[in-house]
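Running co-folding for iron/sulfur cluster.
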Amino acid sequence: MTTTEADGEAVTRTSGGRPAAAGSLSPSRAGDFMTCPLLYRFRVIDKIPERPSPAAARGTLVHAVLERLYDLPTGGRTVPAALELLGPQWERLLAAEPGLAALFEDGEAGRAERDGWLDEARQMVERYFTLEDPTRLEPAERELFVETVLESGLRLRGYIDRVDVAPSGDVRIVDYKTGRAPRADFEARALFQMKFYALVLWRSQGRVPRLLQLMYLGNGEILRYEPDEADLRATERKVEALWQAIRRAMDTGEWRPRTSRLCDWCDHKERCPEFGGTLPPLPSSPVDRPSPADLETAARERDDL
Ligand code: SF4
C-alpha cells in the first residue's frame, strides 16, 4: 500500500494502484443524512433497530415477486403466475425474518388487516403489467450488487433492482417503487438514488447508462431520465460533499435533527430532542463505535418504497 494526497486528504492505495476504501456510502444512507443527520446517526452509528412497517414489508414482498417473475420462461410471465408467487415469497420472507409475523395481530382484526395489506400487494403486482410486458424483456441482471471506490477512497455501494442491456450495449437501470410517483418538485430527490447507481456503474464499468427508469407501482407512473457524464460528475461531487459532512459530524459528535413531514413516520421520534426526547449517549468504546470503513458494510440496503 502507498499513501498520497488528494484534495487535502490522505489517500491510501492498494498495490494495484487503486484507492483503498476509507468509508462507504449507499444511496439509502446518503438519503437518510440528507433527510436528517440525526436519523443517520440513529440508524448507522447507534444501530437502533426499527419496528418493521407494513409498507416496508410490502415493498420487500413485491420486489421479491418481480425478481422471481423473471425466473419463469418468457411465455409464462403472466399476471396469474406473478400473483401465485405472492404466497410463497411471503413465506420465504417470514422464514428469513420471523419478526415480520408481528406486523399483524392474532384474531379477526389482524387477519382483516393482513388481507387488506396483501390485496394492496396484489394490486401493485397487477399494475406492474400495465407498465411493461415482461414477456418481451430479458433482464441482464436482477438485484445486482454494485460497488466502486472513488479516487478519494470513498466506497459507493448498493443494490440495483434490474439492469437491462440492449443489443447495442446501451444500459438501462430500473428501480421499482411501491409508493406513488413524487410531485415534480421532489423528482430530483427520487433521481438522486438512480444517478448514484449510474455513477457506480460508470466508474466500475466505464460506460454511462443510457436510461434511468423509476417504476411507481403505487399509482402506475414511470419516471425516466437520460444521464450524461456531466450529471454523473456532479453526482460524484455531491456524494463526496455529503461524505465530508458525515465525517465532520462523526468528528464533532454533532448530529443535527432536521424536521420535516417525514418525522411523522420516523421510528426515533421518542428519542428525538425536537419532539421532547432525550438523546442516548453516543457509542464511545472502540468496540461499539464503527470505524468509517465499517459503516454500512453489514446492512442490506433497500429503498423499496
Ligand atoms: S423525528 Fe424528525 S428530526 Fe427527529 S430524528 Fe426523526 S427525522 Fe430527524
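Result summary
Helices lie at 27-35, 37-45, 54-69, 79-96, 108-131, 187-205, 229-252.
The pocket of iron/sulfur cluster is lined by residues 36, 38-39, 257-259, 262-263, 266, 268-269, 272, 274-275 (CB under 6 Å).
Job closed.
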